[in-house]
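Box 4.2: Ligand-aware structure prediction
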Amino acid sequence: MTKTITLAHGNGGEENNELISKIFYKHFKNDILNKSEDAAILELNGKTAMSTDSFTVSPLFFNGGDIGKLAVCGTCNDLAMMGAKPKYLTCSVIIEEGFSTRELEKIVRSMKKELDINGAMVVSGDTKVVPRGAVDKLFINTTGIGEVEYEGISASNLKEGMSVLVNRDIGAHGATIFSAREGIELESNLETDCASLYPQVKVLIESGIEIVALRDATRGGVSAVLNEWAKASAVCVEIEEEKIPVQESVRGICEMLGFEAVDLANEGTFVLVVPKSDEEKALEVLRKTHESAELIGTVSMQYEGKVILNSSWGTKRFLDLPTGELLPRIC
Ligand code: MG
C-alpha cells in the first residue's frame, strides 16, 4: 500500500480492492463479510434493534480513544441502551485524499478491538475517497443491528418515586475533546469516557434489576437525557446537584469555559431509572465497573416535564436543555 490514500483507492478497481483487503478485511474478517456478496445475509432471533450514527470528531485521535473506537461504541451503545446485544455493524468511510494509510489502519484496529468487546462484527461496508478539502480527513458512518435481550425500556415509563442513577462521573468526553482541540496541557490524566456499554447492561439485566429507562448521555449530556425523559413521561426529575459525580479535571475545564458538566457530551456514560426498591442493588452493580457511579435523584410530580436541580443549601433551579452548539464535531 502507498503511505497515503489516493483518489485511485476509491476507484472501484484494483487500488480500491487493495485498500479494502489490506486494511478493512484484514481486521474485520468474518464468514459473512468474506463472502463479499452485494448484501450480507443475517440470522437474527426475536426482536431486533437498529441504530445508525455518523462520526466526524476532530481531532481524530484524543486521550483514551479515536474516531474508530467512537464509531463502534456510539452505535453499539445505542443498541445496548434499548436492551439489545450488538450483533452486526456496517462501516462506511469517507476518506480525504492524502490521508495517512498507517493512521487509517490504526483506526480500523481500534474498531476491531471494540467490536470484540461487544461480540459484534462488521458485515458490510463502503469506502469513498474524495479530493483534498472535500472532507476533513475522515468521516465514518456505522449502522448496527442487535438482538433485544430485555424488553420494555422506554423514555416514557418514568413514574413518581423512581430512582435516577448515573454509571460514572460525567463530562469526560466533552472536556477531553475540548482540551485536545485547544492544546490545553492538563496535569491530570483526563481522558474520554468512551467505552462499550453492553457489558455493563448485560450485568444489569442478569442481576434481575427492573430497568425502566436507560440512555447514554452523548451530545447534550446528562441534561438532555433528563429533559427528554421528563417530557416523554410527563413527570419532574429532581436531581441533587452535589450528588452528580464530576472529576476535578472536568470541573476545571468547565470553570474555564463557563460550561456545566451536565451539558457536556459523554461516550461511555449512561443514566438509568429503576424502581426505588431496586436502587441499592443497581448502585452496587454499577459500582463494580465504576467506583464513581451514583444515585443522583428521584422522579416526582412537582413540575410536569421539568428537571429540577436541588442544591445542598436548599435552593432549587430548573435544569434546561442545552442551547446553541457548545462544541461542534464532538463525536
Ligand atoms: Mg443514545
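In the box above, the bound molecule is magnesium ion. The mean pLDDT is 96.
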